[in-house]
Write a structure and sequence with these properties.
Shape: flat
Helix content: 10-25%
Low-confidence stretches: 1-20, 106-116, 125-161, 176-194
C-alpha cells in the first residue's frame, strides 16, 4: 500500500504543507494584492506567477515554524512598463496570523476522535495488514472554498522534479534572460545592505551603492521606495557626459543604460548626491508615519531628491497622503497631508511659522535691507516687497527655501515701510494655531482649514486702525465655502473678525463688538 503523502510509512508530516493547506492560498492572495497595489498590475490570472508565489509562500510558512520572520522574495514576476516586477517583503508571525486567522507553527496531530479505525484482519489472512494512515477529518477543515480539494490519495508524493517546479524553473530562467537584456551590465555592489527589505529602509547604503556603481557623485535624480532608482552622470566611450539609469534591489545595482530623457544643460541639473545629509533624511523617513497621522501596514515612505525649477536641491518625501519637502540639510520647508488632524495637514496653520525667521533672513539677505512694505504668506508660498534703494524696491518670492525677485524697481511709499526684523513671529504662530477655534463652530472642527494667508503691514483700513501697534497681522482663512478675516495687533490681540461658520466666534464678532 502506498502512503498518500508524507513519510514512507504514511505518517503525516506535521509542520509541512499538506493537501489541506488553505493558509498558503491566503498568503498567495495577499501577495497578489500587494503586487497589484504597488505596481498597478493584476497577476491573479497568471498561472505561472501563481505557482511561483505559492512555492515562495510554502517556503516562508515552513521557515516561520522556527523563526520569527521569513523573507518572501520572487524576482522577475512579470515585465512592467518601467521594467521587471519583483516582489520583496517579509512575512512575520503577526502578519501570518492576520492573513490566515491562525498562528504559524507546527500543526497539531489529529485527536482520537479523528482517527480512522484500521481494518481488522480476517481469520484466513496469514500476513499482517498495514494500518490505514491517520488523516485529519473533514470536519476540521477550514470552510473557505465551495468545493473540497481532491482526496489525499490522489495527490502525488512531493518530488524535487515535480512538473510545477520544472515549469517555474524554466520560466525563471527565461525571465532572467529577458531581464538580462534590459538590465545589461549588471554589477553587484560590494556592500550588501544587510536587513534592508526596501531601498527606503537604508537610504545611506543605497546611495553609497549608486555612487560606487558609477564611480561618481553627480546625479540628476535619486528615488528610493520599495526599490531604488537613480539617474547619474556617466562618461561614454567617446568622452561625452551622459545620464545613465540605475536600479537598486536587495543590495544589487543594475546599470540599465542611458536615460531616455537627456537634459541639454547638465551643469544646471546635476547635483552632488554626497552633499545631502542622508542621516537627517533617514530620520525624516522614520518620522513620516507620525507626520501623516497614522500607520498603514505594508506601506513604505518614498524619497525623491532632485533640483527644483529654481535650481536648488530639494528632498520630497511621501507617505500615505503626507508630503514633506526638505532642504539638503534635512530642514523641513513645507508639509501637506490628507488627515486633517495630522502634523503634516496642520503644519500650514501653525508649524509653518516656526520657519518664518529663516524666511525673513532669506528675504533680508536677498534684498540687502530690513525695510519692508509688506510681508505675505500664502499657504506655503511667501512674498514680500522690500526697499532696495531710495524710493524703490523689489517684490520677492520664496518657495521651498529659494528666493527669487518677481518685480524690480517698484516705487515704494516711505510711510508704509517698517523694520521686518522687529516683528515677533512667535505671536503670529500662536495666532495661527487659534485660527480653527476662531473661525469654525465646535460642530465644524473636522472640516479643518484648507487655506491660510497672512499679511503683515502698517494699518491701512478702518478695521486695521483699531490696532495701536506699528504693524498688524491680517489672517484670511478658508474652509470649504467659508472665508474668514481676522485682524490682530503686533501683540496678538484680536481687534476685528468677520466671516466664519455659524456659531463660531468670528461670526458673532460684529454683534459682540459694535
Amino acid at each position: 500500500m502506498t502512503a498518500p503523502y508524507g513519510s514512507a510509512d504514511g505518517s503525516p508530516p506535521w509542520g509541512t504543507p499538506g493537501p489541506d493547506d488553505d493558509d498558503v492560498d491566503l498568503i498567495v492572495d495577499f501577495l497578489l494584492a500587494q503586487v497589484k497595489r504597488r505596481h498597478r498590475v493584476d497577476l491573479s490570472e497568471n498561472q505561472i506567477v501563481h505557482l511561483r508565489l505559492r512555492e515562495a509562500a510554502e517556503k516562508a510558512k515552513a521557515e516561520l515554524s522556527s523563526a520569527p520572520t521569513a523573507p518572501l522574495r520572487v524576482l522577475f514576476l512579470e515585465m512592467g512598463i518601467d521594467g521587471p516586477i519583483h516582489l520583496s517583503t517579509t512575512l512575520t508571525a503577526a502578519k501570518f496570523h492576520k492573513i490566515t486567522g491562525k498562528p504559524p507553527g507546527r500543526r497539531e496531530p489529529p485527536g482520537p476522535s479523528d482517527a480512522v479505525e484500521p481494518p481488522k484482519p480476517s481469520p484466513d489472512q496469514t500476513s499482517p495488514v498495514r494500518p490505514t494512515p491517520t488523516l485529519v477529518s473533514q470536519a476540521r477543515r477550514r470552510p473557505t472554498k465551495a468545493s473540497p480539494r481532491p482526496a489525499a490519495a490522489s495527490r502525488p508524493a512531493h518530488s524535487s522534479t515535480s512538473p510545477s517546479r520544472i515549469v517555474a524553473a524554466l520560466v525563471t530562467v527565461l525571465l532572467v534572460c529577458v531581464g538580462a537584456g534590459i538590465w545589461r551590465d549588471l554589477s553587484r555592489s560590494s556592500k550588501q545592505a544587510d536587513g534592508c527589505v526596501t531601498a527606503v529602509d537604508c537610504a545611506s547604503q543605497v546611495v553609497a551603492d549608486f555612487v560606487e556603481a558609477v564611480e561618481g557623485t553627480q546625479f540628476l535624480e535619486v528615488y528610493l521606495g520599495s526599490q531604488g532608482h537613480a539617474k547619474a552622470a556617466a562618461t561614454s566611450a567617446s568622452g561625452a557626459t551622459t545620464v545613465e539609469s540605475l536600479t537598486w534591489m536587495d543590495g544589487d545595482v543594475a546599470r540599465v543604460g542611458s536615460a531616455a530623457d537627456q537634459p541639454e544643460d547638465l551643469r544646471n541639473t546635476l547635483f552632488d548626491v554626497t552633499a545631502v545629509d542622508w542621516a537627517s533624511v533617514e530620520k525624516l523617513i522614520a518620522q513620516m508615519p507620525q507626520l501623516a497621522g497614522f500607520v498603514e501596514e505594508d506601506q513604505h515612505a518614498s524619497v525623491t531628491v532632485s533640483r527644483s525649477r529654481f535650481g536648488d536641491v530639494g528632498i520630497s518625501l511621501k507617505y500615505c497622503g503626507a508630503h514633506v519637502i526638505a532642504d539638503p540639510s534635512g530642514r523641513i520647508v513645507r508639509m501637506t497631508g490628507f488627515d486633517r488632524g495630522s502634523p503634516a495637514a496642520t503644519w500650514e496653520v501653525a508649524g509653518f511659522y516656526a520657519f518664518v525667521p529663516q524666511v525673513v533672513d532669506d528675504f533680508v539677505t536677498t534684498a540687502g535691507s530690513t525695510q519692508f512694505v509688506d510681508f505675505r504668506f500664502i499657504s506655503y508660498y511667501a512674498q514680500a516687497t522690500a526697499q532696495t534703494g531710495p524710493g524703490t524696491g523689489d517684490e520677492l518670492s520664496w518657495d521651498d527655501g529659494v528666493v527669487n525677485p518677481s518685480f524690480t524697481g517698484l516705487l515704494v511709499d516711505q510711510d508704509a515701510l517698517f523694520d521686518v526684523t522687529t516683528v515677533d513671529w512667535t505671536v503670529a504662530g500662536k495666532l495661527a494655531a487659534q485660527i480653527p477655534t476662531l473661525t469654525l463652530a465646535p460642530s465644524d472642527t473636522e472640516r479643518g482649514i484648507k487655506d491660510l494667508t497672512l499679511r503683515v503691514h502698517r494699518p491701512t483700513s478702518d478695521q486695521e486702525r483699531r490696532a495701536t501697534t506699528e504693524v498688524v497681522f491680517v489672517f484670511t482663512a478658508k474652509s470649504d465655502d467659508t472665508a474668514t478675516t481676522i485682524v490682530a495687533d503686533a501683540t496678538g490681540k484680536v481687534v476685528w473678525m468677520n466671516g466664519g461658520t455659524p456659531g463660531s466666534p468670528a461670526s458673532t464678532w460684529a454683534a459682540d463688538h459694535p
